[in-house]
Design goal:
A hairpin with a 2-residue loop joins strand 21 and strand 22. The protein has no helices and 22 strands. It is mostly beta strands.
């Protein structure tokens, strides 16, 4: 388990905050990361990320790739990052719940050839909320409503590629109820929707309680995990 510390990058040489590669049963809890190209990445790994805050990622705050399986819970990610979360080439399940993906520069969550389930999560203040390029993305089904919140995404809340169907049932789209046609792609199912904000996501632990580690190359033996990779 990696727990209760802070990693700060801030230069173009700081590539990964925490990189998990070929690692299983990794838990990352109550960690704050800012100023890396990628805040936390998982490649061919099984990872649980809880109570973390990832911001100011030059590329992606949370990167899940190469058939990893990741659980994200009570995480705040994306502020001043290009992309909040990217899940790509992962047919194994990735789940996000009780989290906030907000304040990105381009996209909140992007899925490409992914198997992604999102529940009780706020996706707000991004140009594009969720971008589904390909794969299966479950934002809420008829028998398991998503209870996600989409607010203040500048361009569109849910963008789906042609011939890609996305269920986003049981979400809150704002006080007007059903989202306007230009807020979701035509292949996004939104019925039923919520009429009140469920306010499900919880804040992470205060940064002030986390010990700060300035980024250098640091390694721990738990599969292949690299902290503060700067080359």
């Amino acid at each position: 388990m990696l727990t209760a510390f802070r990693l700060r990058g801030g230069t173009n040489d700081h590539h990964f905050g925490i990189a998990c590669e070929d690692a299983d049963d990794i838990v990352i809890r109550d960690v704050a990361i800012d100023g890396f190209h990628h805040g936390i990445s998982a490649s061919r790994s099984t990872v649980r990320i809880v109570g973390c805050e990832i911001s100011e990622a030059f590329n992606v705050a949370l990167l899940v790739t190469q058939d990893s399986s990741v659980e994200v819970e009570n995480v705040v990610a994306g502020a001043d990052s290009a992309i909040g979360m990217l899940v790509t080439e992962c047919l194994r399940p990735t789940e996000v719940r009780g989290s906030e993906i907000r304040g990105t520069l381009l996209v909140g969550i992007r899925a490409a050839n992914a198997n992604l389930r999102i529940r009780d999560t706020r996706i707000e203040g991004n140009p594009v909320g969720v971008d589904v390029v390909s794969g299966h993305v479950d934002l809420g089904s008829a028998d398991d409503l998503g209870r996600n919140v989409f607010r203040d995404n500048e361009v569109i809340d849910v963008l789906a590629a042609r011939r890609v169907t996305v269920e986003a049932r049981g979400a809150y789209w704002g006080p007007d109820g059903r989202p306007a046609p230009d807020r979701v792609s035509p292949t996004v199912a939104v019925v039923p929707w919520l009429t009140r904000d469920p306010a499900a996501a919880r804040a992470v632990s205060p940064r002030a309680r986390l010990a700060t580690q300035w980024a250098r190359v640091k390694k721990r033996e738990a599969g292949k995990i690299t902290l503060g990779q700067d080359r």
